[in-house]
Amino acid sequence: MRHFLPVFASILTFSSLATSSLTMALPTPEISRVLLVQKLDCSNPENLPQQSMNRCAELSYQQADKKLNQVYKQLTAKLEAPRVKKLVAAQQAWIKFRDASCKFESSEVEGGTMEPLLFYGCLTRTTKERTKSLQ
């Protein structure tokens, strides 16, 4: 029994080290996503695999949303408080409409691999339209 305990402790130590090093060797989803973004060329997305096309559509939406937020902030800085309040209410209603409309539009292929592409494409298009109307 005396010899068993040190041997058992050694086995546990080595097995836990092997498990943790195996876990650390596997890429995390965040690292995989960063690597995907670094290697992704969205200049010609129609020649990419579907997952990459979806990611390009998401990145395009993020850029459009960033531009919209810049224009929105510039506009609110120019308006007086009563008009800012009305703009905020209008913008919140527009966001709900946009999201619901794009969910409906992409539901044509719901559950399919093209759903994110259609959803983000719709978000991008409507966000750019809203940006133009606020400018």
UniProtKB/TrEMBL annotation:
Keywords: Signal
Boundaries of every Lysozyme inhibitor LprI-like N-terminal domain copy: 42-134
Position of the signal peptide: 1-25
Top-rank taxon, per record: Bacteria
A Pfam family per the record: LprI
Listed InterPro entries: LprI-like_N
Protein name: DUF1311 domain-containing protein
